[in-house]
Structures are given as structure tokens and as C-alpha cells.
Design goal:
single chain; 234 residues; alpha/beta; four-stranded antiparallel sheet; globular
Length: 234
């Protein structure tokens, strides 16, 4: 699903965010990127999402070389990825329905099908009945669930999340990880950047540890104690 081959990323200020990084993530895996602040976790996700491009090396997603994608091809490519941010990045002047529907609007999905998918996505994250609320009327945890619903509404095969539980208390953080496990259980590849090793221990999954932009260590997959009922409804 994802392959980095000797990837480097140097920013205009000269900072080397990634140095000669090679890693793979198989289809259907749930993988955690760990490491100190500045280790390169967010940069890896940005390269996968084509928010940034590698300075050197090869990045492939689903067998496709991202270096060969032209600018006009990026929106179609991103439709295959659900992206979850720590700070939600919601439209605070629009209701929840509009926020979740945004990827479908961009894709040109018909209104009837759009409404069905939005309601299904909100139900999956426990927010059924909140379609007309504004994001600021919701708790921080609920806002993060809106972001997850938006990410999965198009049923992408790949989810990436950058510190999705960083602003949540431990119980809410575990609830959010439960959602990711449920999506992974039906075959969605999930890559999460997180510094919360205790939470990762509770969830299970393979770790890829980064240090100063380099691969530090990679674990084998651990069995998760969390239950994972099916979630991607048709």
C-alpha cells in the first residue's frame, strides 16, 4: 500500500525533516508512527497526502509513484485518502452536515446519495442527529468525530491521522482509537502519527519509530484488546 525508498525531505530553511527513510505499510495494516516532536512523523503523512513532495527518493501509494503525479491529478488522488488532523480543520460557520459532505460535494456525488452517506458516516462515529449543529456547539471530542466522519464518508481505502487524540482526555482518546480499529477491521489501511505510547499499547498495532528524520525501529504487530465490530455500512 505505502512504500518509502530512501526518502529525504529538506525544507527551504535548510532543515532536514527526513533523511534516507525507507519503510513499508501493507494494505489492511494499522500502523503507528512514533517519535519525539520533530522526528518526522507529520512530514511522512504530508508526503503520503501530497501536501508536500519528497526532495529525494521514492514514495509510492497503492503502486503509484507520487513523483509522477501532476498537479491537476492531486485532487483525484486525495479522494482515495481520508485525512484527520489534530486541530480538526472544520468549517466553523457551516453545520456538521456541510463539513462531512465536503469531500462528496467536491467529487460531484448526487444529493440523495450524499445525504445517505453523510448520515451513515455520522452514525458510525456516534453523532447521528447532529447534522444541523455548528461545530462550536460540540465538545472537542465530538468535533474530532466530525473530522473522522468527513475523512471516511467517501469510503477511502487509506486513512491517515496526525496526532488525532492529542487534545483529548484518556477516555476520549481511547474512544477515538476504537473508531480507527473498527475501520481497520474491515480492511481500511490506517496510519496514525502519535506520541502517546501508553495509548498505543492499549490499542495494538505495528509501530514505526522515527528519530531525527530517520527510521529508529519498527515493531511487529501486537494483538489489540479492543473489540472491532464491522462499521463500513453500504
Amino acid at each position: 500500500m505505502i512504500r518509502f525508498e530512501r526518502v529525504a525531505k529538506r525544507y527551504p530553511n535548510g532543515r532536514e525533516a527526513l533523511v534516507d527513510l525507507s519503510l513499508t505499510v501493507s494494505a489492511g495494516e494499522m500502523v503507528f508512527l512514533t517519535g519525539h516532536s520533530g522526528a518526522g512523523k507529520s512530514t511522512v503523512l504530508k508526503l503520503i497526502a501530497l501536501i508536500d513532495r519528497a526532495t529525494r527518493g521514492q514514495v509510492e501509494v497503492a503502486g503509484q509513484s507520487l513523483a509522477k503525479l501532476k498537479r491537476h491529478q492531486i485532487p483525484a488522488y486525495r479522494q482515495q485518502i481520508g485525512i484527520i488532523f489534530q486541530d480538526h480543520k472544520l468549517l466553523y460557520d457551516r453545520p456538521v452536515w456541510d463539513n462531512v459532505a465536503l469531500p462528496l460535494i467536491i467529487s460531484g456525488v448526487a444529493r440523495k446519495e450524499m445525504d445517505k452517506r453523510v448520515r451513515s458516516a455520522l452514525d458510525q462515529v456516534g453523532l447521528a442527529g447532529h447534522e444541523h449543529n455548528l461545530p462550536l456547539e460540540l465538545s472537542t471530542g465530538e468535533q474530532q468525530r466530525v473530522g473522522i466522519a468527513r475523512a471516511v464518508v467517501g469510503k477511502p481505502p487509506l486513512l491517515i491521522a496526525d496526532e488525532p487524540t492529542g487534545n483529548l482526555d484518556p477516555d476520549l482518546a481511547l474512544d477515538i482509537m476504537q473508531l480507527f480499529k473498527r475501520f481497520n477491521a474491515v480492511g481500511v489501511t490506517v496510519v496514525i502519527a502519535s506520541h502517546d505510547l501508553h495509548l498505543i499499547d492499549q490499542v495494538g498495532g505495528r509501530r514505526i519509530a522515527l528519530a531525527s528524520g530517520r527510521l529508529a525501529a519498527t515493531d511487529t504487530t501486537h494483538t489489540s484488546p479492543l473489540s472491532t465490530p464491522s462499521i463500513y455500512a453500504s
